[in-house]
Amino acid sequence: MSPVPAPSDLPVELRTEALESILVEKGLVDPAVLDKFVKTYAEDVGPLNGAKVVARAWTDPEYKARLLEDGTAAIAELGFKGPQGECIVVLENTPTRHHLVVCTLCSCYPWPVLGLPPTWYKDPAYRSRAVREPRALLAEFGLELGPEVEIKVFDSSSEVRYMVLPERPAGTDGMSEEELVSLVTREAMTGVAKTKAPA
Amino acid sequence: MDGIHDMGGMQGWGIVPFDPTEAAFTAGWEGRAFAISLLSMNRLTGQNLDAMRHALERLHPLEYLRNGYYGRWLLMAETLLTDSGVIAEGAVDARARKLRGDDVTEPPDPVLNKPDYTATGPGSLRPVDDPPRFKVGEQVRAKDIHPAGHTRLPRYVRGRVGTVQRIQPSALLPDTNAHFLGENPQHCYGVAFDSTELWGSEAEPFVLHIDLFDSYLEAPLENQP
Predict the structure, then answer these.
(1) Judged by CB atoms within 8 Å, which residues 105-124 of A form the interface with B?
(2) Is the pLDDT of residue A21 over 90?
(3) How far is the alpha carbon of B122 from chain A, nearest alpha carbon, in Å?
(4) Which of A143, A174, A181, B6 has the CB geometry, 3.0–4.6 Å to A138, for a possible disulfide?
(5) How far apart are CA B87 and CA A48, in angstroms?
(6) Does B225 have pLDDT greater than 90?
(7) Interface pTM (ipTM) of the complex?
């Protein structure tokens, strides 16, 4: 193997532009294809997909059962699949069991349902602490869990990807599936937050 | 390898920065670096996902951290493209200086050197004929091994005893696949470790669940003094 690139003092923006320029010049990359990739992951593949899965599970008990049994297949029913979604396991949070998802070795994340990982998920502080002091970490996110709540942390070390099914908040009985979608955040689907009823 | 990427349990990183309104890409170059990196894996270099992760791990620790996630993705793409002889070593720096207006000579094109690898199937899941070596509920020990190459066995579980919770779908072994030494499909186990087994008796109470490949595991009493 050749050595990795030597440290460079050039700004990362300029180096990105340089690499694109070389690959375009060689005819290997079409800037329009890059635009399409960027647009897809900036606009189409995001936590709204996962929120739709959660809202369906909250309103359709048979769907929820299928989702917990085979996450990948139940998520594909709603049309969500693709890279980093080969095998998705859904973890159900309850009043006494809380799941938290991390990837300590890189930043593996279930792209088809949650999109690309946010900065906090990729931060060394999150990657290091989630598997060592999850309760303290969650408190910093504003989530205080009582001693009766069992915490299970999932480190995404294989190609299995994890998504949390948060608890449906109290006071949302009258809400439609579509209205419920708007309550579900990516933080709730990784386990650093709970879902809240509208104020 | 025991590198900067293996962050589980490290101390000293402080508070997690949190912005719930953050967009997928926080700067224009991040999206470009992301898209170029995705293309630089299979399509342009003939490399694979595990080689891609190992390219991240091989970065100098300061470079790994300097420009965040997409900064390291950019360097990873450059590494894969250089490894496969698609671009020359130093080509990106030379082009960047040229774009800046410096008078530089760009390095000549290298000889294409793509790995001789064709995936035996889509993604990473692969069938294994033999039944799983361990059963759900059985105790296992994560081996205390320190391979110089790629592995998905993090330091913080090595040598620790856990309980098999799930039999995950069998998959190719990242340790060999990253180095093009074969897909080597193996069973994969979801293993639960008690926090006190990992961090001592003063640890917060919780259960850590991690997916470990067959060759990372041994029976608890195997190889013990």
Answers:
(1) 105-107, 115-120, 122-124
(2) yes
(3) 9
(4) A143
(5) 38
(6) no
(7) 0.96
Q: What is the rounded distance in angstroms from the CA atom of residue B182 to the CA atom of residue A31? A: 34
Residues A37 and A69 reside in one and the same domain: no
Percent of chain B with pLDDT strictly greater than 70: 99
Question: Tokens at residue A149, please?
Answer: 């709540």
Residues in chain B closer than 8 A to A125 (CB atoms)? 13-17
Largest CA distance in chain A: 61
In chain A, the number of structural domains is: 2
Are both A61 and A25 inside the same structural domain? no
Q: Which residues pair with A94 in a beta bridge?
A: A97
A53 and A80 assigned to the same domain: yes
Select from A183, A194, A198, A142 the least CA-distant residue to A47.
A183
Residue A59 counted as domain residue: yes
Residue A199 lies in a domain: no
β-bridge partners, A100: A153
Q: Does residue A143 fall inside a structural domain?
A: yes
First to last CA, chain B: 26
A198 in any annotated domain: no
What is the model's pTM? 0.96
The β-bridge relationship of strands A150-155 and B207-213 is parallel
Position of tokens 């250089």?
B82
Around Cβ A27, how many Cβ atoms within 10 Å? 7
Which amino acid, residue A35?
D
Structural domain of residue A30, as residue ranges?
12-44
A35 and A121 part of one domain: no
- ∠ CA A46-B4-B152, nearest 5°, is 65
Nearest to A14 among B10, B82, B99 (CB): B99
Could you tell me if A23 and A76 lie in one domain? no
